Amino acid sequence: MRIELLDLKIASFNINGVKARLPRLLEWLEETRPAVACLQEIKSQDEGFPIAEFEKLGYHGIWHGQKGFNGVAILADGEAPREVRRGLEGEPEDEHSRYLEADVFGVRVVCIYLPNGNPVFHDGEPGPKFAYKLRWMERLRTRMAQIRAEEVPAIVTGDYNVIPTDRDVWSPPAMASDALMQPQSRDAYIRLLGDGWTDALALHNPRGGVWTYWDYQAGAWQRDHGFRIDHALLSPELADRLVECGVDKAHRGREKASDHAPVWVRIAA
């Protein structure tokens, strides 16, 4: 049964293992109650995804799992997401579970976990993982253009593994050699925005300084040495309805938390 909404809260959370972080994930869902929750790095095969735990809270879901790593899912409060696509076209041999698309509450919701891309170089040449990242971003752009052509309210959200600008990282020099900040990665991201998509968090925080990820190492969380790699890109039809957006930063500081914090947007109905 579809729930009536005064507005629509759509969130994204790289959970870093749905089973390992299940108590934190359920806690977050109960406390913040997004209408739609997109999850990345569920690190679970399809048959092992704990859907029953989410159903107890009233959420329905679809998921695209993979053993040990990757994996994405879309949960919806009181309504079953209607799957549109899983996986991106363009590389039939690509078996990574990184893309899931569905219609729910009148919105096209796309959940992505974009490749990390490190190491950038291998034996002095561009590494295969970085090349895969750039190809994946171009394939994503192709699909996003198709969605744009449909002129539907749409959101493409998740872990993009791209730090868009120097304003989005605690120390640009510290990350300068990382795949997340390479000019090619940033250029590919900028092309998405140039195609007409709106970066919600950047729009509402033009000065930057908003982080969504803090490494487990070197006291990054305690020192607030983070960066922004989790994004919510909105089609023009949805960007016009954007009310507010934010990061649930406090959830990163809880016991056995993910190294990411959830991001969310609130859309006028």
UniProtKB/TrEMBL annotation:
Tell me the Gene Ontology biological-process terms attached to this UniProt entry: DNA repair
Q: Which Pfam families match?
A: Exo_endo_phos
GO terms for MF:
double-stranded DNA 3'-5' DNA exonuclease activity; metal ion binding
What family does the entry list?
Belongs to the DNA repair enzymes AP/ExoA family.
User: Which residues are Mg(2+)-binding?
Assistant: N14, E41, D159, N161, D259, H260
| Site residues, Important for catalytic activity | D230
Q: What is this protein called?
A: Exodeoxyribonuclease III
Lineage top rank: taxon: Bacteria
Q: Can you quote the record's cofactor note?
A: Probably binds two magnesium or manganese ions per subunit.
Q: Which residues form a coiled coil?
A: none
Keywords associated with the record? Hydrolase, Magnesium, Manganese, Metal-binding
Please state every residue range assigned to the domain named Endonuclease/exonuclease/phosphatase.
11-260
Q: Which cofactors are named for this entry?
A: Mg(2+); Mn(2+)
